[in-house]
Amino acid sequence: MKLILSFLCTLLIIAVEGQNTTITGNINGNAPAKIFFYEVLQQPVLIDSADVNTKGEFKIKTEIKTTGFYRIQSDVKNFMMLILKPGDNLTIQANGGKMNKNPQIKGSPESVLIYKYGTLIDAIAEALDSLSGIIKGSNYTGEQQVARQAAMQKHEELTLKQTEIVREMFSKHPGSLACMFFVNLLPPASHPDVYTKVDSALYSQYPDNIYVKDLHQKLTPLLFLSEGSVAPEITQPDTAGKIRKLSEFRGKYVLIDFWASWCGPCRREIPILKDVYAKYKDKGFEIFSISLDKSEAAWKAAIYVNELNWIQVGDMKYWACVPAKEYGVSGIPFMLLLDKEGKIIQKNLRGEELKQRLIEIFGE
Predict the structure, then answer these.
(1) What does pTM read for this prediction?
(2) What is residue 191's predicted lDDT score, i.e. its pLDDT?
(3) Please, what is the Cα angle at 142 between 139 and 148, to 5 degrees?
């Protein structure tokens, strides 16, 4: 199984107390003389083995100390991946020639998930490989070109179906270790909603696990401020010293605006901000501007001269501005549009693009 082979370097191991685990198996056809049982760490570690009788039956009863990834195999090319926890008692039926081809598993729900979704994915992968051979050809004419166009359309349909299958798996089983078999098939940046669920579920259950932490660290910069995610809270003093919070404006569409009086591009955005604020402030729109100024006088002067009558806050810490650091701001102006629930609709909206987006929300 291609999916299984591609995953061997990205496994999770979760430590718990050891208990006896039993695997009762039946190998149909081409049964090997012996079966080996491994824990898959950075390198597979042999735990136990068992003879296979003439009926293809075997039984392994051994202690495992961790919930994680294991495999049984006849040799390095013919094996079956399992997700086990101490104390599991499972039964397996598999083909001796291809142990990872549609095995029947009972007693290990996590292992069942691997093959339930993996079998669907592998069928699509085989079809995609076949179609790719047609698509990669050149100098097609007539009926050949028609066939190539049909293959391209089918390839697109199957790719979309594969995406839907993985999204379904992540959505239904976000806390399952089986998700790790599919992470290479779905770009996190394009699917932040389901990856947010997976990351949250796994990291909350296994925060000290090195592999879960590694996944979390890789996903965090990709998921942070992604569309659909809730914007982090901002708490800053306004020009009168009153503490204002971003969450005060739930129920309104809010444009978060990082700017500074010394920033030329920021000042050039002001006419557009004044225009959209005048048009939509009575329709449930607010602007929440955070200053990266270091001079309070210059900040207040810019607000007064430009007649900026929306929410203005700032801690006068320049690039050390607390919200700017929390939001990863590396250049200004930096803007994010939020919906009524505080979720990010879009970031880096400026100029005419901002105007058009607000027209879509509020109308002309």
Answers:
(1) 0.63
(2) 84
(3) 65
